[in-house]
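Lay summary

Proteins are chains of building blocks that fold into shapes. Our project writes down both the chain and a compact code for its shape. Here are two examples, one after the other.
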Amino acid sequence: MSQEKLSQVTSELAPTGVLRAGINMGNFLLVTGKTASGDPQGVAPDMAAEIARRLGVPVAYVKYERPSQLADAAGTNAWDIGLIGAEPQRAAKIAFTPAYCEIEATYLVPPGSPLTKISDVDRPGIRIASRRGAAYGLWLERNIKQATLILSESAEAPFEQFVTEKLEAYGALRPQLLTEANKLPGSRILSGNFMTVQQAIGTGKTNTAGAAFLSEFVAEAKKSGLVARLIEKHHVKGLSVAP
């Protein structure tokens, strides 16, 4: 990259001299720990740190408890890049790269459930618990036509509601469901997926040079094996390098 182009990219992505990276702390696959000072550790923070290194600036993590909070902060000058699931609702305000990794979302059904495949779920009389504002929750909002969608704000509430209210299905990320299925003996996770969360890197819509740089970075990070190495480094199960 020419010095002139690098200067343009840096002025867009790090206008304060620091790359402020919005991180969804609620994604346990992409953020697997914290440093003693409270900074996030994991695949997403490492991707942000590598971008900062290539720009020649420090990285500062802007932490959000939920993905919806990170997305809602787009355009407010709170962050320069955001590492988050690329969803159409979010793309109205955020310029996304292609995905660098993806996570399957599917359903957990209770013991004795007659539901055996994904296509069984979207039917009248079926109630689905899920999380509001998560990429898979947004997908369900757009695509569920006949079943009733019951959305909760916190990460824990959908499973609790699924159990206590005896709902017919619970939609979430497969790795999360694998953990929660152990709390409900006899429950089953349906094979396949209703969508895959495409984890990408976003920036402001006006950052055209910055967005192009980020897309090139993601393509190179997948091709070179960087993303795969980070997944291995942090011992993450259920996360795949995006095609």
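And here is the second example, written the same way.
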Amino acid sequence: MKIIIGLINGMLTSATPILLAALGGSVTYYAGIFNIAMEGMMLGGAFFAALGSYYFQSWVVGILFAILGALVMALIFILFAVVLKMDEFITGIGLNLLSLGLTTYLVRQIDMPVTEIVPIPRIHIPGLEQVPVVGEILSGHNLVVYLTLLAVIIIHYLVFKTRYGLRLRASGYNRTCLDTSGVSANRIRVSSLLICGVLCGLAGAFLSLGVVEGFTQGMSAGKGWISLAAVILVSGSPVGIAFISLIFGFTDGLGLFLQQDLPPQFTAMVPYIATLVALFVYSMRLKKKFNA
């Protein structure tokens, strides 16, 4: 039973940054933006979270720094992809490389001792911890894990139950029609990228202040790409993204569990193999749909 509980807790921890970034990707997906810059936004958020937490000795400031860092990346994407109308794919690749290079350089120049970084606290739910099994699964998680569950509900409501969500989907479905109605499609696209930046920043803060305490080179480790795969697999559905992220999170936790018997280089491949398999199944399903 302890193994199962450990796997579930590991699944929730591993799924959290993927889910947060994917929710941001969901908003840009409905706006008609192919946003592959989530990896760079997350990595930038992780670095600036550690930086803010170290210099101000506050995890709250760390989160704010993470969001600001990711928003800077989002603004660069907006400048090139929306204002200057450059190719979104090339812009995203450039941002990912910029984030990796910049954070690698800065972390080598700035000494941030792990012992002086203030992590995001864990939340212990009174009364629930005494409940066998359920208490061990639902209580004692990092604050961001609970915020992520709330974010799923908020993003679903925002996209499908609000006027903004209607305009968001219209900007992706028929941008010209939305402009004709008097609503700027570009303004909607900009706002979607800013929302994505906030969520990717929070995902980055979770990596450097929640999963571990401190920043390491390339610590996003492809989670932004997995988030993009999750968005594609369920066509941007926030609820579907939550389930897909849990599956990816489970494979990540399973990989860590298998390190007891296998070399870590092999177990680290498990979530990425699962991503490739999922994309293959999706492509085959799409092919059958078009051939029907």
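What can we say about the second shape? The chain has a mean pLDDT of 87.
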